[in-house]
């Protein structure tokens, strides 16, 4: 009954957002080649891995013994870490990528979007780059992925930074409309060839503590990268195959020094989840940014990366 009400509500919202009709929202998949000029300038590169051309940026000194690897969240891209990278790359090697199913990397060739498949992907990438150990930082789904790697491959992770990370079953106070649609199978076909820019704007504003910080260029980025061929279909599969809370019981197995960063205005994964991580990861340290939302690293890179820099210097 509740799922039916949610589906009806989302459908009404979608109709309201499209407003003037589907024609103005017609947005078929775009070949990756049409997006690279704008979203993959230098220092972007594409590396061949597991049947994919992975969009990657690898910056900073190559003699860094423990590079920082940044893992973005659902429907985001490596660009979400621009601010942190600018602040860190002068002294640290910083590696970030578009995870499969998102950004310019595109879908998994095998259609497998389980969390364990993503763990395998990141470890394979570290191997290809010749990295024995790294600092892992992840936001939302990327945070879930980061701590799961730390549990499954502890020797590969020296420190852990969790930014509004998934991991526990949670009850959103508010969810971006795009995520709602992706989780309701009957509505997914609506999104395969339509994607109102207004819906993307609404979704981004939903995860910011201060929606006034959402710029037209930011909306363009999320909108255009969502249109990358295969990404919309992959999103629904990712939600279906990787339910939140699937591996919650393993969180206390994290042994690495861990910094937990959280936006006090996060309505998607509410701040009580931050306190659960702090409780379950021995010796972890929590920093709460009261005015920021679900993507605090993107919303205010300067204040959030300062906490990371202090943590890394310890």
What does this entry look like structurally?
- The structure is a single chain.
- This protein has 314 residues and is α/β, with parallel strands linked by helices.
- Helix content is 39%, strand content 14%.
- 44% of the residues are buried.
- The chain has one domain: Alpha/Beta hydrolase fold, catalytic domain (Rossmann fold, 3-Layer(aba) Sandwich), CATH 3.40.50.
- It contains 13 helices and eight strands.
Task: Please tag this protein with its features.
disordered N terminus, alpha/beta, 314 residues, Rossmann fold, 8-stranded mixed beta sheet
Tell me the Rg in angstroms.
Answer: 18 Å
CATH-defined topology: Rossmann fold
Could you tell me the strand content as a percent range?
A: 5-15%
- Largest sheet, described in full? 8 strands, mixed
Which runs of at least 5 residues are low in confidence (pLDDT < 50)? 1-8, 10-24
Q: How many domains would you count in the coordinates?
A: 1
What is the succession of H and E elements?
HHEEEHEHEHEHHHHHEHEHH
CATH superfamily: Alpha/Beta hydrolase fold, catalytic domain
From the helix content, strand content and strand pairing, which structural class follows?
alpha/beta
Q: What would the principal axes of the Cα set say about the shape?
A: globular
Number of DSSP-assigned strands: 8
C-alpha end-to-end distance: 51 Å
Give the CATH level 1 class.
Alpha Beta
Q: Determine the number of helices (DSSP H or I, runs of at least 4 residues).
A: 13
């Amino acid at each position: 009954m509740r799922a039916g009400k949610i589906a009806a509500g989302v459908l009404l919202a979608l109709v309201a957002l499209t407003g003037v009709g589907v024609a103005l929202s017609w947005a078929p998949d775009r070949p990756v080649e049409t997006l690279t000029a704008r979203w993959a300038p230098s220092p972007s590169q594409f590396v061949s891995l597991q049947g994919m051309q992975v969009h990657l940026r690898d910056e900073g000194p190559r003699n860094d013994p423990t590079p920082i690897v940044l893992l973005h969240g659902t429907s985001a891209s490596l660009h979400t870490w621009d601010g942190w990278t600018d602040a860190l790359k002068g002294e640290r090697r910083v590696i970030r990528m578009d995870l499969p199913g998102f950004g310019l990397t595109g879908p998994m060739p095998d259609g497998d979007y389980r969390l364990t498949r993503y763990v395998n992907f990141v470890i394979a990438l570290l191997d290809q780059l010749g990295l024995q150990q790294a600092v892992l930082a992840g936001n939302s789904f990327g945070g879930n992925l980061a701590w799961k790697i730390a549990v499954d491959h502890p020797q590969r992770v020296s420190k852990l930074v969790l930014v509004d990370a998934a991991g526990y079953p949670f009850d959103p106070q508010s969810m971006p409309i795009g995520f709602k649609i992706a989780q309701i199978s009957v509505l997914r076909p609506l999104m395969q060839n339509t994607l109102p820019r207004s819906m993307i704007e609404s979704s981004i504003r939903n995860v910011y503590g201060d929606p006034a910080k959402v710029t037209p260029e930011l909306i363009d980025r999320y909108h255009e990268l969502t249109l990358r061929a295969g990404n919309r279909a992959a999103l629904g599969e990712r939600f279906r195959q990787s339910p939140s809370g699937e591996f919650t019981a393993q969180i206390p197995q994290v042994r690495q020094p861990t910094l937990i960063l959280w936006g006090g205005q996060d309505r998607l994964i509410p701040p009580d989840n931050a306190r659960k991580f702090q409780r379950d990861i021995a010796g972890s340290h929590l920093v709460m940014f009261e005015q920021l939302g679900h993507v605090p690293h993107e919303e205010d890179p300067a204040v959030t990366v300062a906490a990371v820099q202090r943590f890394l210097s310890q």
